[in-house]
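Propose amino acids for all 126 sites.
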């Protein structure tokens, strides 16, 4: 198909058809994959929920409803900025909030038998 000969209106109709077909094939592929995954889990005596784990299985199996895009300003207001509580001993530009997984430099520091409090940031001590 030579699309260079199509008018703008014809191109837009074609674009709509292509987008619709992509969406249809994607949905079909997801459903087929879900069925295959459920069958494979059943062959091993489990449910897909057992394999993936709890609520996540149903959330991932069913496509999430489309939501309106959130405005960036609203996201910032909803989530407060994290405060750096610990600083890298050699590079003060690197910090850690104390939440989540420990960075490797903190793990290394502790492995040397040193105290975590020695890394505490000056602003976090107050």
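Proposal:
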């Amino acid at each position: 198909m030579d699309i260079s000969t199509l008018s703008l209106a014809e191109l837009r109709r074609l674009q709509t058809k292509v987008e619709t077909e992509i969406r249809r094939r994607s949905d079909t592929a997801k459903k087929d994959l879900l069925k295959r995954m459920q069958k494979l889990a059943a062959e091993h005596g489990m449910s897909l929920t057992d394999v993936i784990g709890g609520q996540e299985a149903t959330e991932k199996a069913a496509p999430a409803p489309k939501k309106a895009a959130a405005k960036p300003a609203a996201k910032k207001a909803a989530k407060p900025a994290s405060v750096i509580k610990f600083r890298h001993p050699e590079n003060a530009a690197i910090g850690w909030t104390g939440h989540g997984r420990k960075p490797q430099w903190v793990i290394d520091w502790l492995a040397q038998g040193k105290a975590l409090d020695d890394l505490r940031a000056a602003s976090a001590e107050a």
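The mean pLDDT is 82. Helices lie at 8-43, 48-52, 54-61, 72-78, 104-111.
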